[in-house]
Write a structure and sequence with these properties.
The structure is a homodimer.
Chain A: H1 4-11, H2 15-22, H3 30-43, H4 49-56, E1 61-66, H5 72-85, E2 91-96, H6 100-110, E3 118-122, H7 128-137, E4 141-144, E5 152-155, H8 158-171, E6 177-182, H9 192-206, E7 216-219, H10 223-234, E8 242-245, H11 248-260, E9 270-275, H12 279-283, E10 286-289, H13 292-308, E11 315-317, E12 321-323
Parallel strand pairs in A: 1-2, 1-3, 3-4, 4-5, 5-11, 6-7, 6-8, 8-9, 9-10
Antiparallel strand pairs in A: 10-12
The structure holds a DNA duplex.
Amino acid sequence: MSTISEVAKRAGVSAATVSRVLNGKRHVADSTRSRVLLAAEELGYTPSRAAQTLARGRATTVGVLAHMASSPSVAERLGGLSARLAPSGNDLVLFDVESASRRRAVLRELADPERVGVVVLISIRPTPEEIAIFQEVGVPIVVVDARVPDLDCTYVDNMEGGRLAARALLASGHREIAFIGDIEDNEFDFTASRDRRVAFEDVLGTASLQLDSEYVQLVPHGRSPARRAAQRLFALDAPPTAIFAASDVQASGVLEAAQDRGLEIPRDLSVIGFDDIQSSRGMGLTTIRQPLEESGAYGAKLALEAIEHQPMGLAIELPLSLVSRRSTGPPPT
Amino acid sequence: MSTISEVAKRAGVSAATVSRVLNGKRHVADSTRSRVLLAAEELGYTPSRAAQTLARGRATTVGVLAHMASSPSVAERLGGLSARLAPSGNDLVLFDVESASRRRAVLRELADPERVGVVVLISIRPTPEEIAIFQEVGVPIVVVDARVPDLDCTYVDNMEGGRLAARALLASGHREIAFIGDIEDNEFDFTASRDRRVAFEDVLGTASLQLDSEYVQLVPHGRSPARRAAQRLFALDAPPTAIFAASDVQASGVLEAAQDRGLEIPRDLSVIGFDDIQSSRGMGLTTIRQPLEESGAYGAKLALEAIEHQPMGLAIELPLSLVSRRSTGPPPT
DNA sequence: TTGAAAGCGGTACCAG
DNA sequence: CTGGTACCGCTTTCAA
């Protein structure tokens, strides 16, 4: 590991000049520039990030905050983020927070330009106070998968997604339709599931259908709780002929429960999910697709731009679409 | 953001003493210690990582190198890693490398104690030269999912996994058995798929079965290539009655292809995978389970220990087990 | 256009 | 047990 002064010596200049050249500042003679570049090349010089960070007071890392980063949808977003970030030379520091208190603690810690150059929140909505703090210390925030006023973000129209799902089921002839989604008093105050449900119910209402309360199962996120919720639905006197799950992971739990009960899909039950994670194809799951990887890539793009220039308050809406596979069909007659 | 000298001033001591207290060094009077701690507490002091790194010449971050970090098996390992690492205060810096050249470049870059305190390789095997370099610069390497001599690592017995799969299929009565796995001239020189196949064929040989070359499909990793490979298998004059896929992701491609062709699982075709990723339950996939999340957690543990003490050259073997679900059954009669 | 020097915020060695 | 001080490697005025 060579240092800047070694490069300087070799090029016959001062460290200050090397710094200028390497940071692309003006006011350097071309001849000097090329000599420095050559010396740096020959020494295989790489600047010390720690020293740069300390001297500049600003880190070249992007902090990524996520909840359940290993769950497929988040992982796919992360993949897009990472790929787009890699060429930039910024380090991607991952914080996978499991609780609301951790989330707060980490976010507080990251409000420091010497710690991270920018922070990307995945499916996490910052509070106005948090936004104010970051604004104050000068660390840009970008949000992936949530629309937050004044912040760079990517999002989808969850209500539209709920409508797409409802129309698809209605079009197939279903009338007994249930919903499985996230509990809404969750500590992350994340409204995607609720938005999808509300719009979903809305469209059902248009068809003079009404979601009976026992047809609405709000459970913790994850496959198993959704599976149990589906089991409860199956045990009803009048079980539904179709289930809309607020995420593909939950839909996979429904599929599992259906299998346990010997229900044939889609003959006995139609299932529609949300996200279109990679495994949904293998599962044959009909779903409302959102561009997961792309959302991460946009997040990275916004993050890099926020560092270079200023945050622009850009809100990027990503498209939703219905992907029909074999988990949906007409209701049993 | 307060600095160490502010804490020092408030406690009426020197910065050196604050440093000692905060780093838990001995030779500090109890009264002094508590005064410093109080001052730090009151100021909400957090040491600057950049400054610490620079002064110590050693970073408090763990660099994680992975290929296809968004694929379910890797993402689950990452989840375990992250969870176990979080309380340690080490930053997790993720490098998701897509090519062999990137892999080399990143690894070279990480061979620097000021860059990362330790590096964790997920399903990536370092070359002897690379190991030597890291050894020399004093950055410990730990490997998750590969057995590497002299290195701390976690691994599974892939051959045993291949045997488990073969025996399961044989026990069900299958005789026409095909294999779908990774191409073996892949740029990451990763042998898991090959090991599984070799042992698999071995057991078949015991039953005087022999994998015809057209029954062995080696394709790039991912769902789609596996799907196409399965389609080729189905198009054979004598299509197999069972397929062993070297990973669950590939198995999901097989399931998809079977569906496309109108094959009923497991009546017309049995499928067995490897990994037991989360979505395998929903897919009803029989598989050879390996503890993915746990492997990541162990990786983190080994990494932390390698920083604290020295790398111990610990090789942790994780257990494999057959998980029977609905994708396997007797062959069609 | 270039260099000298003063930090950035800690750590660690050496005296006392 | 504690303080002074010399760096760690780079950036950034300020002068020349």
